[in-house]
Amino acid sequence: MPVGASESIFAPLSRALGLNLLTPSSFLKAIGEGADPTASDINTIDRQISDRKIKVWVFNSQNSTPDVQRITDAARQQGIPVTTITETMTPASARFQAWQSHQLEALMRALAKVSGR
Predict the structure, then answer these.
(1) Secondary structure of the chain: what % helix, strand, coil (to 5)?
(2) Less Cβ around it within 10 Å: N or C end of the chain?
(3) What is the pLDDT along the chain (117 residues), one digit of tens a residue?
(4) Could you tell me which of 53, 86, 82, 88 has the C-alpha nearest to residue 70?
(5) N- to C-terminal Cα separation, the chain
(6) Residue 98: strand, helix, or coil
């Protein structure tokens, strides 16, 4: 299943789940490092969303730049399911297993919306 993501934190999980992460790795790295993504990367993601090449957008809510928020909003406007991940436990009092399970279940629901499963 082709997916997009706002940050590199999702890349290992997407590989482990057998998802096809289409977001340019240079965009993922730039956002993760607090740098500005290239115009080329932003254009690529914009086309992936407008052409509905990605089926789910995975958004790190703890690292939302104006570019990431605009892209996330565009995905929602195109009817692409958006799911949120975080890199630290949310809420802070959560148990690790509960936090990870909650994120995986949200991703599963988003994928189910587009796969019909």
Answers:
(1) 55, 15, 35
(2) C
(3) 999 999 999 999 999 999 999 999 999 999 999 999 999 999 999 999 999 999 999 999 988 899 999 999 999 999 999 999 998 887 788 899 999 999 999 999 999 999 876
(4) 82
(5) 13
(6) helix
Which residue type does 18 have?
G
H/E stretch holding 96 reads helix 96-115
**Which strand ranges, in their side-by-side order, compose the sheet holding 56-60?**
20-21, 2-5, 56-60, 82-85
The tokens 């789940």 sit on which residue? 17
CA distance 47 to 35: 21
